Amino acid sequence: MAASVDAPEDGSPDERTSERFAPAVGDETIRRERGIARALRATAWWRRKLANGLCHYCGGHFKPAALTMDHLVPLVRGGRSVRGNLVPSCKRCNNDKKSRLMLEWCPTDPPPLAGKSPAPS
Fold first, then answer.
1. Taking CA atoms, which of 10, 58, 83, 121 is between 20 and 30 Å from 113?
2. CA distance 68 to 97
3. Which pTM was predicted?
4. pLDDT in tens, the chain (121 residues)
5. Computed from CA positions of residues 18, 83, 94, 98, in that sequence, does the dihedral angle turn out positive or negative?
């Protein structure tokens, strides 16, 4: 007989939920990855990423100093401090996203893109 695809009725966590996207990551691993991210912030690659002043999530324009480094896949979810996982983010989006994946989060009230007028209501 095939396994049921319905969620367990006993209230136990369903292994198909987001818990499978949350591997156990040790403090030492997080500390090491944060150190790598700090080193990457000092590189010309990161300065170029900040130069256009765009938040990866909401598309808002900010001064480069107002942008933060965000991990697309958060460190506590098993993400790494590699170029493909790091994006510039405004503080509002970074704080709102927290340790969620993009599948679980979407920016609210994104600012209009520069030079574009809001759509008529």
1. 83
2. 13
3. 0.70
4. 444 444 445 544 444 444 555 567 889 999 999 999 999 999 999 999 999 999 999 899 999 999 999 999 999 999 999 999 999 999 999 999 999 988 888 766 555 454 444 444 4
5. positive
In terms of Cβ atoms closer than 10 Å to its own Cβ (0-12, 13-18, 19+), residue 54 is: buried
What angle do the packed helices 44-51 and 27-41 form, to 10 degrees? Answer: 70
| Contact call for residues 100 and 107 (beta carbons, < 8 A) | no
d(CA 55, CA 101): 16
Confirm whether 4 is domain-assigned. Answer: no
In a domain, 61, yes or no: yes
Q: Rounded to whole angstroms, how far apart are CA atoms 69 and 81?
A: 10
